[in-house]
């Protein structure tokens, strides 16, 4: 599990680096909607004068000719991940996993306890990201920086009438990494571990049935005596769905949500935050959420045995 978690972390870093390489020193923020546009963005990383603001303004009309900023900022994926569904979507794979395992007949007490522990772990991550890494860091960020002024070329275009903060850590990157990607990767590791345990148990049962000794011929008297002492025949085990099919839907949910989170990281790093802000968000996400989850993948919390403190 630890190696798998590190592999997915490397994928995240590669996607973030791709977004950073596309960022040519730009940072686009939403502005007031202008006539003929559905949305407007301004590149606040430049120092253009008020006389030529059109060079750094983007008008989104909803057509196929829209700029990449319009596509990235107004996509359905971005709107969904940054909506109130952010408190529900990260838990979808866990719910699907529990339901499919129940259908497959693998919902043992130890697995149920492990899933409840994972549910509490994910809720703690979501609340920690919301209260600590979003509200808390935004509050600290406002304290250490001077108050926003209106001495910039785009101030009159914003609803607040003020300039953007000098440093605004990429909270969308923190959201995508902590609340979506890290949880989905951890859940996928647990799903694949459960599938391996399920497959080994099924193989052991099948091997035991194949090695069952056949009855040896004996005399009628001895056979009547042995038949009276032999236990009654056991009914065949019930047919259950394949363990692969029981974990496939949950794994698909993990892959879909993790892929959407990577897309959000890429768009944010490439268009909507400076490179320093994106790197700061990645570092914060790793040390606050990534490293603790990585330690769980290699610690006693995922050891077999189904103790009360297991999460996988």
TrEMBL record:
Keywords of this entry: Membrane, Signal, Transmembrane, Transmembrane helix
Would you say which domain of life the source belongs to? Eukaryota
Signal peptide positions on this chain? 1-18
Which residue intervals are annotated with compositional bias (Low complexity) in the record?
Answer: 219-229
**Which stretches are tagged as biased composition: Pro residues?**
230-240
- Annotated region Disordered: the residues are 209-240
What is the protein name given in its UniProt record?
A: Uncharacterized protein
**Organism of derivation:** Ectocarpus siliculosus
Task: Identify the taxonomic lineage of the organism of origin.
Answer: Eukaryota, Sar, Stramenopiles, Ochrophyta, PX clade
């Amino acid at each position: 599990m630890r190696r798998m978690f590190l592999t997915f972390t490397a994928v995240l870093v590669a996607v973030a680096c791709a977004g950073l390489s596309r960022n040519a020193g730009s940072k686009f923020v939403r502005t007031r909607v202008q006539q003929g546009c559905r949305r407007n963005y301004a590149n606040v990383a430049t120092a253009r004068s008020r006389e030529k603001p059109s060079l750094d303004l983007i008008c989104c009309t909803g057509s196929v000719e829209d700029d990449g900023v319009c596509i990235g900022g107004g996509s359905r994926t971005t709107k969904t991940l940054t909506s109130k569904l952010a408190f529900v979507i990260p838990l979808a794979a866990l719910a699907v996993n529990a339901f499919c395992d129940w259908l497959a007949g693998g919902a043992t007490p130890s697995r149920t306890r492990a899933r409840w522990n994972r549910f509490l772990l994910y809720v703690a991550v979501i609340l920690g990201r919301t209260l600590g890494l979003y509200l808390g860091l935004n509050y600290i960020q406002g304290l250490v920086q001077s108050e926003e002024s209106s001495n910039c070329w785009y101030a009159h275009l914003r609803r607040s009438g003020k300039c953007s903060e000098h440093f605004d850590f990429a909270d969308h990157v923190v959201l995508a990494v902590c609340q979506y990607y890290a949880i989905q990767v951890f859940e996928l590791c647990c799903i694949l571990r459960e599938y391996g345990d399920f497959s080994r148990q099924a193989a052991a049962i099948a091997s035991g049935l194949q090695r069952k000794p056949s009855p040896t011929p004996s005399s009628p008297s001895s056979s009547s005596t042995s038949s009276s002492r032999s236990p009654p025949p056991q009914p065949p085990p019930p047919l259950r769905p394949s363990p692969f099919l029981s974990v496939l839907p949950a794994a698909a949910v993990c892959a879909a949500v993790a892929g959407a989170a990577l897309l959000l990281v890429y768009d944010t790093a490439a268009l909507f935050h400076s490179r320093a802000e994106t790197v700061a968000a990645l570092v914060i996400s790793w040390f606050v959420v990534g490293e603790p989850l990585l330690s769980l993948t290699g610690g006693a919390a995922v050891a077999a045995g189904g103790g009360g403190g297991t999460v996988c």
